[in-house]
Amino acid sequence: MNADTDIATTHVVHAVCSLDCPDSCGVLVTIDTASGRATKVQGDPTHPVTRGFLCGKVAKMLDRVYAPDRLLYPMRRKAGVPKGKLAHGREAEAFERITWDEAIEEISVRLEGIAREHGPESVLPYSYAGTIGQLGYGSMDRRFFHRMGASQLDRTICSSAGGAALTSVYGIRLGTKPQDYAKAGMILAWGANIHGNNIHLWPFIEEARRNGAKLVVIDPYRTRTAALADEHLAIRPGTDTLLALGMMHVIFREGLEDKAYLEACVRPGDAEALRTHALQAEHAPEAVAAVTGIAGEKIEELARAYATTFATSGKGAAIRLNYGVQRSENGGTAARAVAMLPLVIGSWQHEGGGLTLSTSGSFPFNTTATQMPELMLQSPLGRASRVVNMSELGQALTTLSDPPVKAMFVYNSNPAVVAPNQNAVLKGMAREDLFTVVHEQFFTDTADYADYLLPAPTFLETKDVQGSYGHLLAQVSQRAIEPRGEVRNNVRLFGELGKRMFGDACFDDREDELIDQALTTDHPFFAGITRERLEREGHAALVLPGPLPFSTADWFKTASGRAELKPLPMFVAAVESRNAPAARAYPLEFLPRKADNYMNSTFVNHPGHQRLEAKNAGVLEMHPTDAAPRGIASGDTVEIFNARGSIALKAVVNEQVGEGVVAARLGWNKLSAGSAGLNALTSETLTDIGGGATFYSTLVEVRRAVSTGDERPLHQ
Ligand SMILES: Nc1nc2c(c(=O)[nH]1)N[C@H]1C(S)=C(S)[C@@H](COP(=O)(O)OP(=O)(O)OC[C@H]3O[C@@H](n4cnc5c(=O)[nH]c(N)nc54)[C@H](O)[C@@H]3O)O[C@H]1N2
Ligand SMILES: Nc1nc2c(c(=O)[nH]1)N[C@H]1C(S)=C(S)[C@@H](COP(=O)(O)OP(=O)(O)OC[C@H]3O[C@@H](n4cnc5c(=O)[nH]c(N)nc54)[C@H](O)[C@@H]3O)O[C@H]1N2
Ligand code: SF4
Ligand SMILES: [Mo]
Question: Which class would CATH give 3-65?
């Protein structure tokens, strides 16, 4: 054997991790050339944010790609098998394999019939971010549903409150790039589980800390990030507006605001109004302490340290605001209030300063070209179809009329697990008169309700173009391996359905054409960024007007062309919070959190990932002060309940949460005791702005379950 053949046995393909994560890592996939099989995934060392490493979840991605229980063929529910939970590992018994031709034909006929009888809006597409690649997330699927006249889905389940908040203040979702955190003089991680959810920011934070920066974490849960920080402020859930106003109170009272910056960059009158508002007595640190649970002197200290960062270190103060803050009833206002802090102290002008919530709005992908909303006008409706909020899926499936939802087409999502008010969602999905198609990689809880199950790709099996919601680099992901079995991507699946049902030429477009369309724009941020360049270089940085966003007035994209602070952020306690009337029956604030070793409900079914998460699986964490009066000790089975539902978990009494707060982690319903998931307890209440889900405004009560010695579910 000579060296040449040795080298030729493997090759490396550049892909992009398309999981719903702010890091959008560059991934190098090693392929065994002869077999075409992927043998290794690693972080792209040339990617400025990935810097050569992947998170623990995706380091084991090949376990998922080659899992023996992948869905590889189209399937149809067997006649007579009712919809609903199937025993894990035996799901295939409920379905029979069919060909793609049969699947396309039979699904088309059913959708045509439903549209004819009930109107096309009775068809509801339901999708989220199983992949955040532009084509996988929303391209041919949108053309198909628009052309049909199906209901439109308002995709609110994750970030719409925060998105609306940022847009209302700044006019654009842009922020400090992760690399710049290395130059920060102080960092606040505000509702941001950096270690669990945004690991590639961590090395930059560590670099800043080595150079003297302090890291303060504001989170009701003691995350690993909080444990590793210089300070952890365990704020009570849903009270962030007040903490931000308390900080502003101190800053304005002591004259630490940046007057020149406010004058130049904020809409005339707004800064003065905010100052008057913040200086009200109810925003004084002692008053704020009583509600947030953070001591008054800590608030004073935090505000002073934050506002004087530049004066004392010559570096900027950065806030990593993440989505935890906006998943509550008044989360939009809270995100707005926090987002005003860097304006008040002018930290956008300083290297290492500013704020990051989401950078996704900085990528000017031409979604009008890829998704063709104008096709709605060619549908039988001849107008834009109705919009259904995905955070109200339970209501959509059980009470919506005119027309009722008669067909649901699920892709990139596992609503049976992730959608709030799970009992309503499952009741709706179990309807025998609901026609359900699910495009998936695995037999998820949602798949248990499918009439037709279609096999979907992992990011190794499809080509795409991707932005990011945590950094400012565009990337092309090459198809690293042939799709397994008969797996088809979004472009192929909806292209064929569209061709069969409507025949329009737009359903012939393929990946490269769609990528070109996505990049065709005269927006300056994409100047010089083409598919060919991304294919050659892997990634390319957006062309921003300068290195420091919002350092000058011309960055703001609001109507006034300045930062806008009105309406002023007012603190309102959540209806589901500790001092509200509802707390008399359900006194504990519940945090139904994400698992650090899973991605929402993705990876839950892999033994390797389960091992990493074993300590937390099926666990309810509670504070000793709450456990003792309820007679609960670690290891006890407890029932967590409210008017919407009840679940069983094992208590772990610790101080990861403060008094009055209990926490658990998301997993698959069918792998949980009693087969209901955390979202059996959450509500369909929407956020104050943006119509988002309010997972973190959930009141519950907990009691020790009487042990009967069997595994019978507690309810249902
Ligand atoms: N490992 C892993 N990574 C992920 C995900 C995953 O499931 N697992 N999910 C991905 C997705 S979809 C998203 S959107 C991102 C989200 O990433 P993050 O924005 O970090 O979102 P969360 O984990 O929802 O919330 C962050 C933190 O906010 C805290 N929190 C809850 N309520 C409040 C509050 O009222 N105030 C404050 N200050 N903090 C609060 C929570 O305890 C949590 O630790 O992560 C992505 N990355
Ligand atoms: N209690 C509670 N509930 C939550 C949250 C929480 O923190 N707590 N987080 C909320 C948030 S922030 C979010 S973003 C949502 C996430 O909710 P979802 O977007 O539903 O996320 P996942 O549970 O990861 O499910 C994504 C599914 O898409 C599939 N998939 C991946 N790639 C593809 C593809 O190319 N094609 C198709 N057809 N399918 C694919 C995966 O196999 C996976 O089953 O959950 C929300 N729900
Ligand atoms: S999940 Fe996030 S951190 Fe992990 S590889 Fe994907 S993009 Fe990177
Ligand atoms: Mo999310």
Answer: alpha beta
